[in-house]
Amino acid sequence: MGLFQKLAFFLGIRRKEVNVLVIGLNNSGKSTIINHFKDEEEKVAEIVPTVGFNVEKFQNQNLSFTAFDMSGHGRYRDLWEHYYKDCHGIIFVIDSSDRLRLVVVKDELDLLLQHPDICNRKIPILFFGNKMDCKDALSSVKIAAGLGLDKIMDKPWHISASNALTGDGLQEGVEWLTQQIRETIVTRN
Amino acid sequence: MVVGVACGSDLLIYKNNKPFYKFSVPSLPILALEQDAWQKLSEPDTDSSKIIENLKNTPFGLLSPRSQTLVNLPQEDIKEFIEKYSSIHLTKSSPITCMTSLKRNSEDPLAISCPVLATEQGQVYVLDPQSFTILHEAHISNAKATPSIIRASGILDIEFRIIVACREMFITLLRRGWLEGKIIIQTVLPIVDMILMPGDNFICAATTDKMLHCYTKRGNKLWSVKMNQPITCLCLIPLKHLSIALVAVGMQGGAIHLYHSRHSVDFITAPDTPSAIVFGQLGQEEHVMVIITTSGTMNFKILKRTADFNLNRDNSISPAAQSKPLPLPKRSKLFLEQSMRERQHAVDMHQSFQQDLVRLRLIAARTVVQVNSNQAAAGNEKEQLKLSAQVLGLGPMFTLILTLENMNSDKALIELSAVFHCKPSIYKLSSYISAIPLIPPGLAYKIETKVKECLNSENSTEEGAAISTTQIIRVFIVRLGQVQPVLAATINMPPTDPLAYTV
Ligand SMILES: Nc1nc2c(ncn2[C@@H]2O[C@H](COP(=O)(O)OP(=O)(O)OP(=O)(O)O)[C@@H](O)[C@H]2O)c(=O)[nH]1
Ligand SMILES: [Mg+2]
């Protein structure tokens, strides 16, 4: 590690509070994913549909995350945009077995990307193709094609297939996000 | 969730997609004559032909389906048919033509609801959803009525309204406690589909003439709109988050228009003519429209979360003044008196008006003639020739200059000559006839003629009164070999100044 990077790493640690916004349609598994990252004693046994939003904290690679677990229900989706300004990264959860609503996912994603608080920022977006264990789940390649993710040129993005019940694929995705957020903090300093 | 399927006169109930119960509509009373006939038929060695003849003489519509079949059977099949059926109990049931559901004791979307059936005979049954006994039974109308569409609103235990559209082109209403429905709407043409609007219970009905009508819950018509295609189906689209309910109008060709009251707010298209549209929750999504088309395709449409149908803008477009009456002034006393007079003297008023009209026309015609004859320059439309005259001098010697103008754009005027005509006792002219050379198109030709007034003192004093009529020179433009002059004009000569003459 060069001197410059060491310094950056140091700065990164100093600024260890990062905000991530967890969004996606209702029933996609957002709360289940966040629950997986929480400490053993804080985990909840049963997950119910979120009302409004919940604020959760967890650690990953020396970075402490404040996750805004938004409700994905239609009538609460208006809330999402109020948190765009202050977040350092976005986790977008997709139920890969809900083929009917992929068009709705695309609609919400387009609204997100066009939002003035998002469109000019190089904010990293992590997509989870969740519920990959389901029989009729779409592969992450198909989801990426269906949502037109290849057209996102100005933001780092990544998609991983996941199973929030077992935790498969979650760690990999969040590591990528941590890395991205570190890099943006380094370049900003 | 339970699914009910009406099949003939039975209602089949499926729970979790498995057959669960079968409800049969009660049998209708059977004619004594028919009962008797079958009783006899079941006995051995009876003469069936005579009994069948008897059945044929009773009105066909009153017979049970079994007898209806029997009277139409060919001779050779009759025996077998009687053997097969005569021992089975005779029933006459009426097929279910339409059905709906009605909430039992709560408005909650997931609360228990009761099946409501209507039969071809015009009978309506409300069933208990658990025991499948009849909770309420009514006849939809005292007139002959065949239900085709049934809709219900309200709560069975509190207050409800059942609206039935019939093939006889009317809509009847049934309410809690009523045993017979009341006709509230009569249409001119058959009803294609009908829906009940939530809240105000307005009734929207589509007829075969491309019209969508809206009525109040009492049956007063509020408005009608004409579509450009025949309507095939209607569907209610309640949008709670916008506090509105739209009506989806499916039309031939595949267009589906969304109406908010009488205004079209949006439209979508299906691959071909929709035969049925349903709107509601499907899986996790609340606002899904399922369209089934006549060719058998099934289409799913999800409403955009951000759709607001521009309703605010629409309100400003529709003129507010339309709803309130025009600001007409009150009928004044003067107006009433005038209308009274008009009624009493209608013939006189008409005649005097006609008289005035004729007079006006006469004045107009006179004025036209006068204007025409006053012209300083005369013209001939057909020949496109224009003549103007100028008189120079104070007298008794004058110079008369005639200008002939060819108005044609492409034709030259030829073979013309000018003829002067005057009273020789008054004027002497240098020439009385002058040939006119060819006048090229667009150009003019001038003829100069000297005029001398023959003044003798006696004449001037004696005939002073006649001067005005005789001091004229007439000019005719004539064409060679043509009797009628091409153009004629009268030139009024100025009087000779007596002072100038005496000098
Ligand atoms: N099979 C399977 N089920 C999952 C998975 N992830 C979540 N679920 C289930 O999906 C359901 C919804 O999960 P939630 O975490 O409540 O979803 P959410 O996105 O938070 O929903 P809202 O809070 O309503 O926006 C729960 O019953 C979960 O058990 C997965 O990876 N596989
Ligand atoms: Mg949740």
From TrEMBL, chain A:
- Which residue spans adopt a coiled-coil conformation according to this UniProt entry? none
* Localization in the cell: Cell projection, Cilium membrane; Cytoplasm, Cytoskeleton, Cilium axoneme; Cytoplasm, Cytoskeleton, Cilium basal body
Q: How does it sit in the membrane?
A: Peripheral membrane protein
The record's annotation in InterPro entries points to: Arl6, P-loop_NTPase, Small_GTP-bd, Small_GTPase_ARF, Small_GTPase_ARF/SAR
Alphabetically, the GO molecular function entries are: GTP binding; GTPase activity; metal ion binding
Identify the keywords attached in UniProt to this record, alphabetized. Cell membrane, Cell projection, Cilium biogenesis/degradation, Cytoplasm, Cytoskeleton, GTP-binding, Lipoprotein, Magnesium, Membrane, Metal-binding, Myristate, Nucleotide-binding
Protein name as it appears in the record: ADP-ribosylation factor-like protein 6
Q: Which organism is it from?
A: Ignelater luminosus (Cucubano)
- The organism's taxonomic lineage, starting at the top: Eukaryota, Metazoa, Ecdysozoa, Arthropoda, Hexapoda
From TrEMBL, chain B:
Protein name, please? Bardet-Biedl syndrome 1 N-terminal domain-containing protein
Residue ranges annotated for the Bardet-Biedl syndrome 1 N-terminal domain, each copy included:
2-175
Give the Bardet-Biedl syndrome 1 protein GAE domain ranges.
385-496
One annotated GO molecular function is:
patched binding
Under the heading Pfam families, the entry gives:
BBS1, GAE_BBS1
GO biological process entries: non-motile cilium assembly; protein localization to cilium
- InterPro entries assigned: BBS1, BBS1_N, GAE_BBS1, WD40_repeat_dom_sf
Q: Quote a single Gene Ontology cellular component term.
A: centrosome
